[in-house]
């Protein structure tokens, strides 16, 4: 019997990250099994209702809200906000929903994989702004996706993976290059199937679907929730590692929610893989002949098994933050 799993992929990117004197590009994906997809979206939506007395969950319109008597139209307006990491500034409803969502990512162990490309070691400046997306993003988008599919699902668990759809945050830069949208998914399929043994195989969708992360502007309100979650998770993981927002207490507080997951992952990546989590950096050393490396990546996935080029031995730039009157999470873990 063929053991098969169907998934949706949600993807987002982050550019211009600095760590010491190195520049990074981040590619983050969530891998959502079809069997859990509807429940996860409903849970995310219900977490939007911040009215503690309401037991009915989230309704888009105040008029439909079963808790109408103890609710207000303006709460629906506030809670209907796009959860966009960049826009988090204070302890408003966006922050409160983000906090709930991140706790949910932990408790439900939502599968994710984040790849930080060390552009300085890649000498990526030689490729110019236009070619970045063609050469660097396209290739490492595949690298990250292939790694996650193989490690999370082909590792003894499944013989066949069907990726129903890849949703990507609307990005004009990427959309301009039809290569990413049209050719990249099938290229993943070809590369992965060429290297899998024992009848294992993957089926990829025909194209990447670009959607608006803001559900108020989106054709698929529900899928936009998971694009927002991808953006949020990528934002807080990056905040811990790169300390991107040094004077934003709300962001620090959110970063602390996910911090134990990151610390635990770097301590024991193999346990992390078991929980379908990955955070990787690439490459560890400067690669002089990037063209050669790209050819290698094109032709095979050999480079992914060269462990010395992937690395995870980094320290978190963001210092541990205490919530008012509470011990920091780390000190709690030290005691436990
Ligand atoms: Zn309500």
- Largest sheet, if any? 7 strands, mixed
Provide the β-strand percentage band. 15-25%
Task: Give the helix tally.
Answer: 13
**Count of folded domains:** 1
Q: What is the approximate shape? A: globular
Concise structural overview:
This protein has 336 residues and is α/β, with parallel strands linked by helices.
Task: Describe this structure as you would to a colleague.
With 336 residues, this protein is of the alpha/beta class. It has one domain. Helix content is 46%, strand content 17%. The chain is built from 13 helices and 7 strands. It has helices at 34-46, 73-79, 93-107, 119-122, 128-153, 172-176, 178-195, 221-242, 249-267, 269-274, 290-299, 302-305, 329-335; strands spanning 4-19, 22-33, 112-118, 160-169, 201-203, 208-211, 277-282. Strands 1, 2, 3, 4, 5, 6 and 7 form a 7-stranded mixed sheet that branches. The protein binds zinc ion. Residues 51, 54, 62, 65, 67, 71, 75-76 line the site of zinc ion (ZN).
Keywords:
46% helix; alpha/beta; 13 helices; 7 strands; seven-stranded mixed sheet; globular; 336 residues; binds zinc ion
Layout of secondary structure:
Layout: E1 4-19, E2 22-33, H1 34-46, H2 73-79, H3 93-107, E3 112-118, H4 119-122, H5 128-153, E4 160-169, H6 172-176, H7 178-195, E5 201-203, E6 208-211, H8 221-242, H9 249-267, H10 269-274, E7 277-282, H11 290-299, H12 302-305, H13 329-335
Residues 51, 54, 62, 65, 67, 71, 75-76 line the site of zinc ion (ZN).
């Amino acid at each position: 019997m063929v053991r098969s799993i169907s998934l949706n992929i949600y993807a987002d990117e982050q550019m211009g990250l600095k760590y010491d004197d190195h520049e990074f590009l981040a590619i983050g994906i969530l891998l959502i099994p079809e069997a859990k997809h509807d429940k996860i979206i409903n849970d995310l939506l219900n977490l939007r209702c911040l009215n503690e007395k309401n037991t009915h969950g989230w309704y888009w319109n105040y008029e439909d809200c079963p808790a109408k008597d103890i609710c207000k139209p303006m709460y629906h307006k506030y809670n209907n906000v796009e959860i966009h990491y960049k826009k988090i500034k204070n302890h408003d409803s966006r922050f409160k929903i983000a906090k709930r969502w991140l706790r949910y990512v932990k408790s439900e162990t939502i599968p994710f994989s984040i790849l930080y490309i060390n552009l300085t070691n890649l000498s990526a400046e030689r490729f110019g702004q236009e070619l970045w997306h063609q050469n660097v993003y396209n290739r490492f988008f595949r690298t990250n996706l292939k790694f996650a599919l193989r490690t999370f699902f082909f590792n003894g668990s499944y013989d066949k993976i069907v990726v129903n759809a890849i949703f990507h945050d609307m990005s004009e830069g990427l959309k301009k290059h039809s290569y990413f949208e049209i050719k990249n998914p099938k290229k993943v399929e070809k590369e992965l199937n060429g290297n899998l043994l024992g009848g294992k195989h993957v089926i990829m969708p025909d194209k990447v679907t670009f959607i608006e992360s803001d559900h108020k502007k989106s054709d698929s309100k529900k899928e936009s929730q998971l694009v927002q979650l991808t953006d949020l998770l990528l934002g807080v993981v990056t905040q811990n590692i790169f300390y991107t927002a040094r004077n934003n207490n709300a962001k620090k507080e959110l970063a602390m929610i996910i911090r134990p997951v990151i610390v635990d992952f770097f301590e024991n990546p193999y346990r992390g893989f078991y929980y379908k989590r990955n955070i990787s950096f690439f490459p560890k050393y400067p690669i002089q002949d990037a063209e050669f490396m790209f050819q290698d990546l094109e032709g095979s996935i050999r480079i992914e098994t060269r462990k010395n080029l992937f690395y995870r031995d980094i320290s978190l730039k963001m210092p541990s933050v205490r919530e008012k009157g509470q011990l920091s999470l780390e000190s709690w873990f030290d005691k436990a």
